[in-house]
Amino acid sequence: MNIDVGLFNYWVVVILMVAGLYTVISKGHLIKKIIGLNIFQVSVFMMYITMGKVEDGTAPIFSETAVAYSNPLNSVLILTAIVVGVATTAVGLALAVRIHEAYGTLDESEIIEMDGGE
Amino acid sequence: MPELINIALLTFLVVISVVIIRAKDVFTAVMLSGIFSLLCAGLFTVMDAVDVAFTEAAVGAGVSTVLMLAALSMTTSQEKERPTNWGALVVAVLTGALLVYGTLDMPKYGDPAAPVHTHEQVAKRYVETSLVEIDVPNMVTSLLASYRGFDTLGETTVVLTACIGVLLLLGGRRREEDEHEGS
Amino acid sequence: MSATVLIVLSMFMPLVAGLVLRAFDKEPNIRDGFSLLVAVGTFACVCSLTPMVMAGERPAFQLLEMLPGLSLAFEIEPLGMLFALIASGLWIITTVYAIGYMRGHHESNQTRFFTCFAVAIGAAVGAAFSANLLTLFTCYELLSVSTFPLVAHHQSAESRKAGRIYLGILLTSSVLFFLPAIVWTWHLTGTTDFVAGGILMGKIPDAAVPLLLALFIFGAGKAAVMPLHRWLPAAMVAPTPVSALLHAVAVVKVGVFTVVKVVTYTFGTKLLTDTGGSVWLMYVASFTILASSVIALGKDNLKARLAYSTISQLSYIVLGAAFANELGIMGAGFHIAMHAMGKITLFFAAGALIVLVHKTEISDMAGIGRKMPWTMGAFFVGSLCIIGIPPTGGSWSKWYLLMSAADANVWLMGVLLISSLFSIGYLMPVVTTAFFKPLPPESDHDHHDDHHHEGSGNVEYDHILCVIPPVLTAAGCVLLFLFSDQLYALLEPVMAANR
Amino acid sequence: MIDHFPAIQVALPMIAAAVVVIVRNPLVSHLIATGVAWISAVIAWTLLQSVLASGPISYQLGGWAPPTGIEYYIDPLNAFVLFLVSGIAAVVFPFAGASVAAEVDENKHHLFYACLLLCLTGMLGITITGDAFNIFVFLEITSLSSYALIAMGRDRRALSASFNYLVLGTLGGTAILIGVGLLLMQTGTLNIADLHMRLEGAHAASKTVLVALAFLTVGSSLKIALFPLHAWLPNAYAHAPSAVTALIAATSTKVSLYVLMRFIFTLFGTAVVFDVFQLQRVLLPLAVIGMFVGSLVAIYQTNIKRMLAYSSLAQIGYMVLGISLVNESGLAGSIVHMFNHAVIKGGLFMVMAAVVLRTGSADLSAMRGLAKRMPLTYLGFVIGGLGLIGVPLTAGFISKWYLVLGAIQNGMWLIVAMILLSSLLAVIYVWRVVEVGFFEEPDPEAPEIKEAPLSMLIPTWIMLGASLFFGVMTDTTAGVALEAARQLMGAP
């Protein structure tokens, strides 16, 4: 059974991006911002993978039975991007820990207030 | 059939993302983001990206979640109440609208004739000749190791950078604590 | 010595000397002696270039290429020669005067003073020799920046405020108008070189001529055409040697020099007369002449009065350029020299009054002429030169300007005549007050005596150093009258090129 | 050997970073970092000369011809930027010693230098590569190391500034990732030259390409700190360790600007960007607003590092303005200003590093009468300040000349006035500092302040000397910029 999903995938991906972006901008808790960043990035990954899919294709590993392969390039790019994402998360979290030590809070507006509004 | 799984997973993801936004406790949000990553991994498998799915499950759902939990244990998981930030919503939705506009000229999902699959020297070449040129059945591995090996080197450097960064930030910080209290 | 070496020496000797002077911070005698030596050397270099220029040569020298196709280059033509002669010649006298003034007045930061002074002269000579607009602009800006510390010399709140006005107006006008005018010229013609007869003919739409001219005139804020004149009275907080040489000679003359240069070598007088592009400027200059004369009449502070007089006299030169005919250019060139000699005399005298008897207000100067006959005598001769009465040089320049006005715009002859009356009105009362009003009894005498005691016996020496210069320059005013044919011969080629 | 210079250019600092981590000794780390920066600069200079003499260099990594594999593609533009980045690093790295010793814990020095090297690696990688995705990877290397470096500032505000930068920087990086993805979807390739070829065809005006352009522009603008996406910059510059500010302020935004140029001119091409999508209509107003907002806010700052940061915002406005004039002179102005501003601002931040080292503060009040105590350092500030204003004989004048010429060629007189007016605002904020240093007396109760150490003075003066040198000898800057602009605008 094949349903023509058309562009549906992309639209959902966009909704996820919006959710991630909103979390990053609007949430005060620094770690929650990082979660938002993650959601944003993962949805971008999904966009790449979605475009790499070929109808009736299989995973890009050579086999005798395959009719078509999905695009390996997209997978490779996203493998790299995932690592980059987690690296950013790690540095961000380390910063959050230090900020909590220095300010005693992780709330963005409180930190801005303690910095004298700069 | 895979399309149905696809739609179901995507719907789930949207629901989870909304719950994450609304979660009062960051701990909950962290756990949910782990689940989010796992579902993504599932989705990647459906879309034939098994290597990515594996990495996402290990790194996105595993490592990231552990790191976040560790960070939370050192800080606080309570989030201050904030009114809905309409400005942020507008920015985010506008960005989304722009992207949706951009999708209108995109090739359909799974279209084998899409340019991304038909470039003679890129995707087609990888699929058709990598077994001969590199002699590894997994095309993703061939790409990672050879055709785009330099990205992989860059990726390794990113990890190195992150490690150094975290060490710089957190290494031997016990001694400094007093100083920072004072500043 | 070859011409190139001489050009380089006359510009860079002052610049380098300025830096070397810093090393003698602790040795004021060596420092001041060295300053004087460099001044004499510079003048000698400039002088030895003069015969070549008189003979029709145009010594040139390209320093370096600043932008692809645009260089920092120098070429000496008669106007620049004249200006360089005035600036470097008067520098010697001013240095002598400054030594006396700065010591007599117990000024602090004297090393900075002499350093910046030397750099400013280097910049002025560079501007005089510049072969293209870009070089002129560069020297113009260098002059603005190097004279700022001189204006703000006293470091008091007042002088810092004056410094801000000074630099603010000069930089703003030059960057906002002068620079785009140059870039526009470059865009239109592909060159910024000074070429006898102009470069813009046929390259610029007629309607744009007044606009471009306006950018140049107001860009050269140092010419103090109203409404960009405010910096000049503000700059009077500087020590008097600065007012004398820089704000009566070097700085302001760079402004009007730019105007004359642009009219003769960038536009060409023919373009201006054909299109009528400079008519508006005649009226603006006339207004400036009259308005600032009126203001000068109302000033009691002598330096302020002289400052407004300068604004008025500068616009004579601008007016001569605006007439854009042979006699106008000749008159403008003449007046650059005559006004320099006359005005520096007046400022020297005013400074001598400040140092020796602590007088700044004209109303306090009753009878001072009897105590200081040489100083006030020089002041009188200088006044004649500014007003334009024989036997002083000023009469020649006024004459040429009048003749030029008769050709270009008869009505403006009236402006020239009326303003001469005004200048009699604001200069002569100083002389009459000094000579014919009785000395008030004993009022400031005590103070003067105090000065004698604390002045560590140097007073006589200061006295001489402050009095000789105005007498010398007053003599210069008369000499310029007698030897005006030399000046005419020098400037003749400029007229010929614009015939 | 010379054939492999492109690869060595990036690989050398990368390997050196790993070595430095292992070595652990602060002094040796510093020496290695300095040496590597010098070698990098020499390599970049060689590459630049070779590109100018014999045309663009294409280097295939792993031996796979593009677009199958990743390509390094060096033309006059990025050869120039490579030289800029490595040249600045070569001056700042030796300079960093004294400042880092005072501001960073000694047991972290080796990590700090490793981070500096990685930052350099990333910037060189971004600049040299001819592959759109590769840009993203190296951009993240630069970003991650910058976050860590900025957070090393002594003040706790460095931490929040760094976090802020991390969030916005990641958004910017991800936006670039989205843009690259959309282009990949439309063309199937990641190689910039190949992308350009394929975009010229039917896809040129598609909605997807437009959105890709939008995301690439926004992504790089975030990194450039183009108004109104500049929120991260002032605090990051103000609170980072002084040596880091000098390096990042001089190079990081410039490299991002290079990326924007590369996207606009090489990837999409002027026809698509300016004729079809009219990007200049967005960039031009933003650039002008940025010029004024930056300068006006700078006037009211009391922390001089912050003041210089806002001044950077204004200068970035100039550079983007040059791009949006869409002619050779404007673009040349933009490119040459990239270089000149890097040298000038680098020098100024180095001066501030010396001031912070000696007085412990970057506040205006701490600089009272400082010209007497630290004459050479303070004279440096004057030279740099004059360059910032764009006085003739300084590098800043050259850039202004081309920008004004570009605007006049388009007949945009209002823009001419804007460029000049905003450069006059620079006079105000620079002069404030000059006046305080020269015309106010030092606080009599303040402890005696010595001139900065030679290890700082010499590099600072090399940098400021360069700003004078390149103000009069313009063959290497304006000459190359004109050539690069000519090629970018599509002249044969």
Helix-residue proportion of chain A: 55-70%
Number of separate helices of chain A: 4
Which sequence of strands runs across the widest sheet of chain C?
A: 1-2
| Spatial extent as radius of gyration of chain C | 21 Å
Main sheet specs of chain C: 2 strands, antiparallel
Radius of gyration of chain A: 20 Å
**Strand count of chain A:** 2
Per-chain topology:
The complex is a heterotetramer of chains A (118), B (183), C (499) and D (492).
Chain A: H1 8-26, H2 30-52, E1 57-58, E2 68-69, H3 72-103, H4 108-114
Parallel strand pairs in A: 1-2
Chain B: H1 2-22, H2 26-46, H3 50-74, H4 86-103, H5 115-118, H6 123-133, H7 139-147, H8 149-170, H9 177-182
Helix pairs in contact in B: 1-2, 2-3, 7-8
Chain C: H1 3-21, H2 28-54, E1 60-67, E2 70-75, H3 78-104, H4 110-129, H5 133-151, H6 157-189, H7 208-219, H8 231-234, H9 240-267, H10 269-275, H11 279-297, H12 302-323, H13 326-357, H14 368-371, H15 373-387, H16 394-408, H17 411-436, H18 445-454, H19 459-482, H20 484-497
Antiparallel strand pairs in C: 1-2
Helix pairs in contact in C: 1-2, 1-4, 2-3, 2-4, 3-4, 3-9, 3-13, 3-19, 4-5, 4-9, 5-6, 5-9, 6-7, 7-9, 9-12, 9-13, 11-12, 11-17, 12-13, 12-16, 12-17, 13-15, 13-16, 13-19, 13-20, 15-17, 15-19, 16-17
What does this molecule look like?
The complex is a heterotetramer of chains A (118), B (183), C (499) and D (492). Chain A is mainly alpha-helical. Chain A has four helices and two strands, in the order ααββαα. The longest helix of chain A has 32 residues, at 72-103. By secondary structure, chain C is mostly helical. Chain C has one domain (3-497). Chain C has 20 helices and two strands. Chain C has a two-stranded antiparallel sheet with strand order 1-2. In chain C, strand 1 (60-67) and strand 2 (70-75) form a beta hairpin. The longest helix of chain C has 33 residues, at 157-189. With 492 residues, chain D is an all-alpha fold. Chain D folds into two domains: 1-181 and 230-259, no CATH class; 279-492, no CATH class. Chain D is 77% helix and 2% strand. Chain D has 20 helices and two strands. Chain D is globular, with a radius of gyration of 21 Å. The two termini of chain D are 31 Å apart. Chains in contact: A-B, A-D, B-D, C-D. The interface between A and D is medium-sized, with 31 and 29 residues.
